[in-house]
Amino acid sequence: MAILNVNGKKTEFSGDEDTPLLWALREQLGLTGTKYGCGIAQCGACTIHIDGEAVRSCVYPVGALEGSEKITTIEGLSETGEHPVQQAWAELDVPQCGFCQPGMIMAVSALLAENPNASDADIDETITNICRCGTFVRIREGIHLAKKKL
Amino acid sequence: MTLLSKTSRPVSRRNFIIGSSAAGLSLGVLAGCTASETGSTVEAPDYSSLPANPEVNAWVHIHHDDTVNVRIVRSEMGQGTSTGLAQLVAEELECDWDKIQVEFPTPGQSLARNRVWGSFGTGGSQGVRGSQKYVREGAAAARIMLIEAAANDWGVPASECIAANGIITHKASKNKTSFGAVAAAAAKLSPPEKVVLKDPKNWTIIGAPKKRLDTADKLTGALKYGSDLYFEGMKLAAIKDCPILGGSLKSFDASVPMSMAGVREVLQIGNAVVVVADSWWQAHSALEATPIEWDGGELASYSSKDIDALLEDGLGASETFTGNKGGDVAAALKTAAKTVKATYGVPAQNHATMEPMNATALWTKDKCEVWCPTQNGEAALSAAAKAAGLPPEQCEVYKVLLGGGFGRRGMSDYVTQAVEIAKAMPGIHIKLQWSREEDMRHGFYHPVTQAKLTGGLDADGNLVGVDLKISGQSILAALAPQALANGVDYATFQGLLPSGVNPRLEDQILKYSFPNFHIHHAMRNPPVRPGFWRGVNLNQNAIYLESFMDEMAHAANRDPLEFRLAHLKDAPKMAAVLSAVAKKGGWGAKDGKSRGLACIYGFGSYVAACSQVSISKDGKLKIEKITAATDCGHAANPQQIEAQVQGSFVYGLSAMLYGEITYKDGQVEQTNFDTYNSMRIADMPEVDVIIMPSGGFWGGVGEPTIAVGAPSVLNAIYAATGKRIRQLPLKNQNLST
Q1: What DSSP element (H or E) covers B596?
Q2: What is this model's ipTM?
Q3: What is the number of structural domains in chain A?
Q4: pLDDT, tens digit, for every residue of B531-545?
């Protein structure tokens, strides 16, 4: 049985080991901040961290997880919702509908953890999440603002 | 109102409240109650022994702690309308902006109160402009009643009292009281017979760049969208509707999914197979494993080639519907020294909201409840009642914030499906969640059209005549044939119409003055489902006209800015936005940059764009910068208008770069974002937004600027390469030089 080590808590996943992590998070743990947008790792709405690295959870089977691997979802990114990226997003009023933003924030926080001086070129290469409302201008501003808050 | 009976809620950063019934969803589920609740350090007075305040009027409900609930029935799908409308209310109410909360009344409550809040429909960039008058009047009436209640209490004339920031003051005695303290007394007063709205020059909240009221929970994952709802005992449904145009469900083997883990039911709903399971992943997996046979019917071999042939036939047709006409274009073209001809085409688009379609329904023999993201709560209620087989009075729809709308969620097909499934499983909450593939195949697609343009120039390069013939699909013919006027779909001519055709299309007028012109439509309706897609017909009409204006300017050896302005002498506001983007966007600068222009009037606003691009030798396009301007009359919230303009380009340019819905074997070929791509941040240009509200009118914001994105970029591509792109999307074109 797969062990889910999510936001500092370990639970056993009772379903099929082929189940994508996205659906285990959403349907067993009730962590619905991680969104379903495409199911084929295209849109990034399901982005979470595994040991700090951004992963698209919609194609990541729970059976592939080691119990020691630490999963972080948007709900566990910070206790108070005041991670530098979240603060920057609030300051600039980044979200429109907001549906893609948890995945966007997780992708950006992983990028900045690895590369606190991420350049525009780094952003272009790494942040490939889709936003249909089109918040990209403020996302870019938000990333640069978050860098100052790290 | 059920929700409003809740008393002494703490003032929190949560500014949105979603209607719910006592029997259905508890407030805690929808609103969450964790991360963003921050305890106040000042001890709040305890109002728990007092009865709850009644509403002052339909628009405003003020609690003892001075919290103001503003009722808004237009849907919030990210466009910021609810914050904008709350600003309008706060302005006239003179309340404390920091104590504003937005509340969404339900369609059932509206029905019971004779539609006191007006239309729930949220489309056509009408959210603010279509509601501003009655919302402001409602708020002003509430303010007058609150002041009167305080004045009565003090025994002084109301005319000696003023309201500001939620406090009423008697000027002479300096007596003060708060809105919350007099709200109950105000509610008993008769509404004023006459309401005078504030002079715009005295506005302090309208026009201010207020932060959105609904951001906090979008940053922590706490916000519950429709797809996130959970109810005790709820079952999850996955659906696969017949993917073939006009086809039907022939047979399916239910024994396969029924043998799989978690599966509770396998159903046929219309021509769709539905699997209901304990989790959505189980339902989806079982549905994918289900052997299904479709009956293709007459359109089983239909393809995009058939659509092309139909539209090409329209381009050559002599019988057309006239949208706008002046002078004698045929005669003018005969005498022209130079004739310019071009054919353009824009393919069908899917809305592809980030959140695929979903709805949750609970059906019993005497009640049906639905929780869903919708752009039209009343239409959703009507669809629910019909599917439930119950009168609307026994049904209710609770609106949830939308993970994108763009026109798609003005339709209620997914609501009907959810209720039909719930009806087959009485007493159980059923959440129907579409897969992205289902969403891609069962859209209401942006109509497919082509256009043939002929322009004539005299020997001096003056435009003598222009003929614009559109061939293609009418949205109204498919969705609202009763709205056709003697067969004509005037909405096809958005941005190209004369004044006086239809009061509902006065916001879609052609602003150019042409000496001789004919704008007409050969209606050709392929058997695919069209829909209202953000920007609707303004998008392709602007591509056709504004690309062709560029073509004619170049043919006349004239500067495209000067050429346009020469035909905008009677449209100073149009000329003003165009001149503004040209000036700020560096038009005419000798800096080696390639730029293109476009302007149009649509959804009641004057908009223009100056785009700057670079293209590598091997044809890689970089859209470097768009300078955009809008004159939307009054600008309720400039920072949100900026966000809408920036976002509108992502929607329009994603279509220009990548978007096309095509058919093969009677089926949509695109299945997901791998085959229906959307812009990423790397594609995103810098966007400089010039907001230049000239006052005196209320124009739309969410849609109009989409229309100037693509033509300004296409014109810039021409400037860079000499290549005139007339067929979209660009991914099918070679830009190498």
Answers
A1: strand B594-602
A2: 0.98
A3: 2
A4: 999 999 999 999 999
